Amino acid sequence: IVRGPEFRYELSNPLNQRLAGDREMVGKTVQEVMPELEAAGTVALLRQVFETGEPYVAREYPVTMPATLDRPAQPIFMNGVLQPLRSGTGSVEGVMVFAYDVTDLVLSRDRVKDAEERTRLAMDAASIGTFDFDPQTGSVRCDERYRALFGLAGDVSVTADMLMEAISPEDQTRVQAAVTSALHPSSGGVFDIAYRIRGAAGGIERWSHMRGRTYFDDSQKPVRFVGTGIDITAQRRALDQLRFLAEVSTVLAESLDHRTTLHQVAQLAVPEVADACVVELITPQGLTERVAIAALDLEKKELLEAIRRRYPSALKEAFGVARVIETGQARFTPEIGEEMLKRMARDEGHLEMLRKLGLRSTILLPLVSRRRVIGVLSLIRMNSWARYTEDELEFVEEVARRAAVAIENAQLYEQAIEAVGIRDQFLSIASHELKTPLTSLTLQISTLSRLVATDKLSTTPKDKLAHRLAIMSKQADRLASLMEELLDVSRMSRSELVLNVRQTDLVALVGEALAAMAEEADRRGVTFGFDGTGKIEGLWDPDRLNQVVTNLLENALKYGPAGKPVIVKTHLVNDRAILRIQDEGPGIALEDRKRIFEQFERAASPNLGGLGLGLWIARKIVEAHGGEIYVEEGMGAGSCFVVALPLHHPTKNDRI
């Protein structure tokens, strides 16, 4: 993130630091840190976004990584977004740059060209099978290598029908047309085609490349059709995989909406690497949510969704999704037969649906971000001759890795945008809250200064002066309280807030807090009812615990209506000290009861003021003591805040 027209760095994450050669960045301008970006046109792009307020999307943007002690300067390519950052008034005050390395994608195009050339050379040097077909009699003679291409034994008499039957059904029409054309004089007798053969053992499709020529007699009748064949499965697979990875990388680089991106990846996977593809992500609640599904056959897609609705957990157990999430390891099932289907099925209806689905082979891949599984990519073969092999694992794992990186980038972008929004909202709230006591202080100081200047201070009634000084003292206390909250947030973010625990009586502590707030309660017409006798002692930090109690009491006074009581109760439950503070205010909606304990969130109307930090700080303090704080349904109107603390918790000198 850069700020101002001079583009001064406000934030630079570790990857960006590495890109800049580990130079010191924050607080300096882009031109000071990386002058080479001026010549590359990057600064001009920043200026364009800053001046127009329009985002800029960069694709395959060339950047030179500066040289370091252990690395020479090197060119890379980046995709990303330059996003204008606006102030509360809507004016552009900076630019956020979000980018990631797509050098792999750019270079993969060159690798595809190299692979094509290697394929041509390999075909020239490989062991080639031969065939000799008599169009008049239909007889076929072929050597052992040619038979092996079609999965035929050496002692079997070969016919043209046998060879055609072994060709993948998807290619038979195309091959038949090529043969017919080669047997017609107008084609010159040329035969050159690549197609899939399913006759190999195990039902694994293989690619072959056939070349041949037809010889004609004087009457242009075909008399002999001879040619060669070669297995190009490895070369074809390498080319297809490189092309597919290039396509996937392009799709992943086009959008920062990870749901849209994953849907496109699933569509690309079918039929390139699967008959069906399902992508599931783990929700914050620990559940799995399907975000994308694609299938070659629409009926199979509908059946797959029907099974998931009727047997949601069963399908995940059958495929092993839960196991992949637990272990972070891919799950490869090369062959799914009838016996496995029976083991997978919950009942006869389930078994029948699985049979109709036609499961044949699956690969389940974990989507891993920062060493944490965030989802699963499932590739499924159904009713096809193709089966997954171990050779494909490395390739599909690379697809999953790139998808996970794209998800992580999208989530980081969303988090960055959200963080900027929260920061701007907080700055707006903080400036308003700090301005209120400052305005009051300024007014009182101005009045006193005027009395001094006009020599009227000595004649002003003492009660009026005392009143003005009381206002000033109260506003100064308010400023001090706001600043202390901000300092607490800063300390907690750096884990510098330390608990100093000692034997503390909760009942006495609450009593002291109530006494300290009695005057404010009287002013608001609120009475405190305290139900607490004896002692409840535990190992706690009394100063921080007083901070929690005071915050909750202040909220009860702020939101509770005048003339209504605030009931405070302390008691013991199973070696846990319980504090309840019940008011009769507007109450807190069920859906807001967790939200209000987050940073910059407020319990009720924002018009009542506050930084939205008090409850968050209270939660952090209580949790550091091993306890919990929450809102429960109050008796009648209002809300009831509950603090539960263990009497003994290893928190001595712990950092929050």
Question: How much strand?
Answer: 15-25%
Strand line-up across the major sheet: 2-1-5-4-3
Low-confidence stretches: none
Helix content: 40-55%
Kindly report the average pLDDT value: 83
Count the helices. How many?
21
Structural class: alpha+beta
What's the SSE blueprint?
Layout: E1 2-3, E2 8-9, H1 14-19, H2 30-33, H3 36-40, H4 42-52, E3 56-65, E4 74-86, E5 92-101, H5 103-125, E6 129-133, E7 140-142, H6 144-149, H7 160-166, H8 169-182, E8 190-197, E9 206-216, E10 222-231, H9 233-254, H10 258-272, E11 276-282, E12 288-295, H11 298-310, H12 312-319, H13 321-327, E13 331-333, H14 338-344, H15 348-357, E14 359-369, E15 372-382, H16 390-453, H17 462-493, E16 502-505, H18 506-516, H19 518-524, E17 528-531, E18 537-540, H20 542-559, E19 566-572, E20 576-582, H21 614-624, E21 628-633, E22 639-646
Parallel strand pairs: 17-19
Antiparallel strand pairs: 1-2, 1-5, 3-4, 4-5, 6-7, 6-10, 8-9, 9-10, 11-12, 11-15, 13-14, 14-15, 16-18, 19-20, 20-22, 21-22
Helix pairs in contact: 5-9, 9-10, 9-16, 10-16, 11-12, 11-15, 16-17, 18-20, 20-21
Description:
By secondary structure, the chain is of the alpha+beta class. It has 21 helices and 22 strands. The strands form five sheets. The chain has a five-stranded antiparallel β-sheet, sandwiched between helices. A hairpin with an 8-residue loop joins strand 8 (190-197) and strand 9 (206-216). The longest helix has 64 residues, at 390-453. The relative contact order is 0.05. The model has no long low-confidence stretch (mean pLDDT 83).
